[in-house]
Write a structure and sequence with these properties.
Elements: H1 6-22, H2 31-52, H3 56-81, H4 85-112, H5 121-127, H6 140-165, H7 169-196
Length: about 200
């Protein structure tokens, strides 16, 4: 998972470099003064990194929450537009299961990290692929299944990473359960996809 503050730190480093290049008269400063300035800058950057970087578990909980919300929205659209009973049944299962998981993740987030700022929607969108069910070819059911299979595969990558990187054992267990469930749903959707193409 990308560090939410890597871009900020890169910008700070670039600004410092440009500032140094644009003020050649600083060569008249004493070596001691230059060393002090460098030390202060390094300390400031270290403080930013320490204060702003989020623990891995918060990143997973926040991002998977947004990811689940995206799946719920797609599934609600499928309930309205799908012509396949199997797809509508799966969509309802996804809504029920993932809304419950969203609430559980919110509860864990509040319990474990009440003082850590939450990931914003803009930050989450940089980490996730956006799916537009109006785009693509074929029937709505075909487009939905293709998109949701891809969406579930993203979740598998996130859950697989969390199984090894999460700090809390409860989160590792949740990620394992998510992985197993969504892997089964991918296989189910792949079978439906063949039906939707006929």
């Amino acid at each position: 998972m990308k560090s939410s503050w890597s871009g900020v730190l890169a910008a700070l480093a670039l600004a410092a470099t440009l500032n140094a290049c644009s003020t050649p008269q600083q060569s008249h400063s004493s070596a001691n003064e230059t060393t002090q300035q460098h030390t202060a800058t390094t300390a400031q950057e270290h403080t930013l990194t320490k204060d702003k970087e989020r623990p891995y578990d918060t990143e997973f909980l926040d991002l998977m929450g947004f990811h689940h919300q995206d799946a719920v929205m797609m599934s609600r659209e499928a309930l309205e537009k799908s012509k396949m009973a199997e797809v509508r049944q799966l969509a309802q299962t996804i809504i029920t299961d993932q809304e419950a998981e969203i609430e559980h993740m919110k509860s864990l987030r509040k319990q474990w990290y009440p003082d850590v700022p939450a990931m914003t929607m803009d930050e989450a969108m940089k980490e996730m692929k956006h799916f537009d069910l109006s785009q693509g070819t074929g029937s709505f059911d075909k487009r939905f299944l293709e998109a949701m299979i891809d969406h579930h595969k993203q979740a598998l990558k996130m859950a697989d990473e969390a199984r090894s990187k999460a700090e809390h054992s409860e989160l590792k267990e949740m990620a394992e359960a998510m992985y197993i469930k969504q892997e089964k749903e991918i296989a189910q959707m792949q079978r439906m996809e063949e039906m939707a193409k006929r």
